[in-house]
Specification:
The chain is of the alpha/beta class. About 45% of the residues lie in helices and about 15% in strands. The protein folds into 2 domains: about 240 residues, NAD(P)-binding Rossmann-like Domain (Rossmann fold, 3-Layer(aba) Sandwich), CATH 3.40.50.720; about 40 residues, no CATH class. The structure holds nicotinamide-adenine-dinucleotide.
Length: about 300
């Protein structure tokens, strides 16, 4: 177990996906309690099943209570406000409180140059990656703010918080992307949405600081190997964009050639950075963007 996460309730969206699934395992190993959210129930169930398998074989006995009892899956479409609100109510009923949020669900949209990009898909990307992310952030932050107000009311006369020694015990991490900083060709909607996530992070960090909540962003770049990495290179190769070779392997080689460290980042390297921002290790940091891009 890890004192930074032991007994903390962490909400993770996109928990059926690549990052989210590894994140569930990572934080469960460290003693956290996880509310795992995804719109895709099949992949969410696979995450829960994978957790059971992982802990059956190895350290099930070393972390108590057993990890499978500390994770619960919730079917949740982040673009549906009332769905999000009722899921947050269920989480508070099931876990009693929320300490951290990894706001991570996302959709990359079409891989098409700007002249050919479908405006309907542009709107869908913005709806999931921006409005959906905001609705989850707001819903969870309301709960955190209420907890913080109750804890403050219960503080000693000298103002010392009884349940936490920190002024800002609550933490939110939004998954952005370097696409939002640099603009990836053939991904105009995705890049726009992740730039909006960065602005949402700085602005909400200011609004939420008086409520004991920190908000930061993480911006991964090339992460792999794996299905996502391979598929994206195939799509870039087929996009017709002059910035990419028409062969997926050449696209991959050129991308890695542009990274100072000359390699891909691993999902675990992303999650360790998320862990830093979620935990008290970053207790005086809010409104920042941690770039995980190999230099
Ligand atoms: P992924 O596609 O494996 O996971 C994304 C998850 O979000 C999926 O399980 C999907 O079902 C879920 N989702 C989509 N729409 C949803 C909705 N409306 N409501 C709820 N859940 C929804 O992708 P990933 O690689 O795990 O990416 C996670 C996050 O990281 C995304 O925000 C992505 O943009 C970002 N990101 C990924 C990379 C990378 O290299 N993989 C790089 C930079 C940023």
């Amino acid at each position: 177990s890890d004192p930074r996460f032991h007994n903390k309730t962490i909400v993770i969206t996109g928990a059926g996906g690549n990052f989210g699934r590894s994140g569930c395992l990572y934080f469960l190993r460290r003693g956290a309690r996880i509310a795992a959210l995804d719109v895709d129930e099949n992949s969410l169930n696979e995450t829960i099943a994978e957790v059971r398998n992982a802990f059956n074989d190895d350290d099930a006995t070393t972390v108590s209570p057993p990890p499978e009892s500390r994770i619960k899956g919730y079917s949740c479409d982040v673009t549906n406000d009332s769905n999000v609100e009722s899921v947050i109510i269920s989480i508070v009923r099931d876990f009693g409180r929320i300490d951290m949020l990894w706001n991570n669900a996302g959709y990359q949209g079409q891989i098409k140059p700007t002249l050919e990009y479908d405006p309907a898909d542009f709107a869908r990307v913005m709806n999931i990656n921006v409005t959906g992310m905001f609705v989850v952030l707001q819903s969870v932050a309301r709960q955190m703010s209420q907890q913080h107000a109750e804890e403050k009311a219960g503080a000693d006369d000298d103002g010392t918080l009884t349940s936490s020694t920190l002024s800002h015990p609550y933490s939110i991490v939004n998954t952005a992307s370097v696409a939002g900083l640099r603009g990836t060709p053939a991904m105009v909607a995705y890049s726009s949405s992740k730039a909006a996530v960065l602005a949402m992070t700085v602005s909400s960090a200011k609004d939420l600081a008086p409520h004991g909540i920190r908000v930061n962003a993480i911006s991964p770049a090339l992460i792999g190997p794996g299905y996502m990495w391979t598929r994206q290179n195939e799509l870039h190769a087929a996009s017709g964009s002059p910035y990419f070779a028409s062969n997926a392997e050449e696209v991959a080689k050129a991308k890695i050639g542009g990274v100072p460290m000359k390699r891909l980042g691993s999902v675990e390297e992303v999650i360790k950075s998320v862990a830093y921002l979620l935990s008290d290790d970053s207790s005086y940091t809010s409104g920042t963007n941690l770039v995980v891009d190999g230099g």
